C-alpha cells in the first residue's frame, strides 16, 4: 500500500551523487512485467536518464507466465524464466527493496528501511494481488484480495 506524504521530508531524502551523464532520475516502483518494460523503454529512448527499479522480490525480474507454464512443469530451468534484454542498459535494479510510501510533491519514495530516494519522475508499476474467480451474483460478492 502506498500513501502520499503531505509534509516535505527534505532533510531525509537521499540525494545521491548522480553520474555525470545523468541529468534526470526516474524511479520505478515494481520490477514485474510493467515496471521492467518501462525501465527498458526509458533506458533505450533516453540513455542519459538514470533509471532505478525497486523490486520487493530478491531476484531479477522474470517472466511470470514462463514460471507457470515452464518452470513448474520442468520445461525450462530457473535461467529460462529471466526477462530478455535487461542487461547492458545501465538500469539500476534494486532487488529486495521495498517502497513504503510516496511523497508526490518531492517527488521521493520512502523505502522500507526509512530512507528516502529522491527522483525527478516516479512510476508506480506495482500490479495487484491475485483474486479467485467470482461466484455467481446470487451467492456473494467477489473477494477483494485484501
TrEMBL record:
Q: Which Gene3D superfamilies match?
A: FAD/NAD(P)-binding domain
A Pfam family matched in the record: Pyr_redox_2
State the source organism's domain of life: Bacteria
FAD/NAD(P)-binding domain location: 25-133
GO MF terms here are: oxidoreductase activity
Name by which UniProt lists this protein:
FAD/NAD(P)-binding domain-containing protein
Amino acid at each position: 500500500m502506498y500513501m502520499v506524504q503531505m509534509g516535505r521530508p527534505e532533510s531525509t531524502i537521499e540525494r545521491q551523487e548522480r553520474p555525470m551523464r545523468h541529468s534526470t532520475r526516474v524511479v520505478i516502483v515494481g520490477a514485474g512485467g510493467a515496471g521492467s518494460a518501462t525501465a527498458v523503454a526509458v533506458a533505450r529512448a533516453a540513455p542519459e536518464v538514470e533509471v532505478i527499479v525497486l523490486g520487493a522480490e530478491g531476484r531479477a525480474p522474470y517472466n511470470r507466465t514462463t514460471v507457470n507454464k515452464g518452470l513448474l512443469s520442468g520445461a525450462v530451468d530457473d535461467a529460462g524464466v529471466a526477462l530478455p534484454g535487461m542487461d547492458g542498459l545501465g538500469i539500476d535494479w534494486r532487488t529486495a527493496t521495498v517502497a513504503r510510501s510516496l511523497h508526490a510533491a518531492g517527488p521521493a519514495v520512502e523505502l522500507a528501511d526509512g530512507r528516502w530516494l529522491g527522483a525527478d519522475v516516479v512510476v508506480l508499476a506495482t500490479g495487484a494481488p491475485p483474486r479467485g474467480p467470482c461466484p455467481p451474483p446470487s451467492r456473494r460478492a467477489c473477494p477483494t484480495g485484501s
